[in-house]
Automatic annotation (TrEMBL):
InterPro entries: Ala_racemase, Ala_racemase/Decarboxylase_C, Ala_racemase_C, Ala_racemase_N, PLP-binding_barrel. Pathway: Amino-acid biosynthesis; D-alanine biosynthesis; D-alanine from L-alanine: step 1/1. Substrate binds at R131, M308. It holds the Pfam family Ala_racemase_N. It comes from the Bacteria. This is Alanine racemase. SMART domains: Ala_racemase_C. Catalyzes the interconversion of L-alanine and D-alanine. May also act on other amino acids. GO terms for biological process: D-alanine biosynthetic process. It comes from Sediminicola luteus. The modification N6-(pyridoxal phosphate)lysine is found at K34. The keyword Repressor does not apply. Its EC number is 5.1.1.1. HAMAP family: Ala_racemase (MF_01201). The lineage of its organism: Bacteria, Pseudomonadati, Bacteroidota, Flavobacteriia, Flavobacteriales.
């Protein structure tokens, strides 16, 4: 056996259907497949989402969208953070950019030039996340630059909520929703068009049904995490990271384990070495007793410093053999719980799993 990331597509089916059950019949669904589909396998996930009936896909960068097009994905693909240096490639592959500033809009309009008409674009507004987006008072400028004769067709306007999973930020979230509604009305009146509107992410789908508008976007929910225990049990993590025991050592009191002798045995112990490390996405922060793996249904703490290609775990009291299977995370030992041991989140752990780890698609 080797270290492998299993991708369970039936779990994706379940998550998609659950999230779809939370939105209206006429509300469109956008599946976010950026970052290798949150560390899993973007082509397989995109293909399955197309089969399930997703209306749109979204990626962060142009190269991610190009890879999907080359794999035969035909769904509309929104590029959330396009850069001018990739505009030509973006157009060549029929991707749809989010235009988020005057510089980006003007650069894309120039790139499209006379060779395209009615090229689909999406206008991003900043309503408080303060990351990307036009300001509320930019609507008149957008109207002036995307009026009659423009080669661009506005497919949607959208924004991003900052804290939909946080019960302490309900007031702030509602202010964002109200601001987006105001922007939408101003946009419609000023440009005389009514493009799609989309605002919510996974937690927004679950917590703010009044803000579903014309389309919703889901990333982490598709991969099995609801950012809240009340929703987590409705979702199934699609990825299961497994490894194996390469070698077993029995060490005496006072012996050290790993680089810099970070761990010293307080008594006789049995330890196992596994073939994955920080180059595979299990960062050094999980070492020295913070992180763990699961063997025979029991936690085995990571001891010593995490190495580039290996970790060592304490298997004292477990009946293990070299070659035995080890679970790092999966539906029964969730990635978000492992991430919490280092004050991190599921997103960071699952998206950080190295591409050198074999992906195995389970239909």
């Amino acid at each position: 056996m080797e270290t492998v990331l299993e991708i369970h597509l039936k779990h994706l089916d379940h998550n998609f259907k659950y999230l779809k059950s939370k939105i209206g019949e006429n509300t469109r669904f956008l599946g976010v497949v950026k970052a290798f589909a949150y560390g899993s396998e973007s082509v397989a996930i995109a293909q399955r989402l197309a089969q399930l009936g997703a209306d749109y896909l979204a990626v962060a960068y142009t190269a991610e969208g190009v890879a999907l097009r080359k794999a035969g994905i035909q769904l509309p693909i929104l590029v959330l953070h396009p850069l001018p240096s990739h505009f030509g490639e973006l157009i060549d592959h029929g991707l749809e950019p989010a235009l988020y500033s005057p510089r980006i809009l003007e650069a894309f309009k120039k790139e499209v030039g006379p060779r395209e008409t009615h090229y689909p674009v999406h206008i991003k507004f900043n309503t408080g996340l303060n990351r990307l987006g036009f300001w509320e008072n930019d609507v008149a400028w957008i109207a002036k630059n995307l009026g009659l004769g423009s080669p661009l067709e506005i497919k949607s306007i959208f924004s991003h909520l900052a804290a939909t999973e946080d019960p302490n930020e309900v007031e702030f979230t509602r202010r964002q929703i109200a601001q987006f509604q105001k922007i939408s009305e101003d946009f419609n009146q000023t440009l005389g068009i009514r493009p799609m509107r989309h605002l919510v992410n996974t937690s927004g789908i679950l917590n703010y049904p009044e803000a579903h508008f014309d389309m919703v976007r889901s990333g982490i929910g598709l991969y099995g995490f609801g950012n809240d225990p009340q929703f987590d049990h409705h979702l199934r993590p699609i990825a299961q990271l497994k490894s194996c025991i390469s070698q077993i050592h029995r060490i005496e009191p006072g012996e050290s384990v790993g680089y810099n002798r970070a761990y010293k045995a307080p008594h006789y112990q049995t330890i196992a070495t596994l073939p994955l490390g920080h180059a595979d996405g299990i960062g050094r922060q999980y070492g020295n007793g913070k992180g763990y793996v699961t063997i025979q249904g029991k936690k085995a703490p990571i001891i010593g410093n995490v190495c580039m290609d290996m970790i060592m775990v304490d298997i004292s009291g477990l009946e293990c053999q070299e070659g035995d299977e080890v679970l790092v995370f999966g539906p029964e030992s969730r990635a978000d719980r492992l991430a919490e041991t280092t004050q991190s989140i599921s997103y960071e752990l699952i998206t950080g799993i190295s591409q050198r780890i074999t992906r195995k698609i389970i239909p």
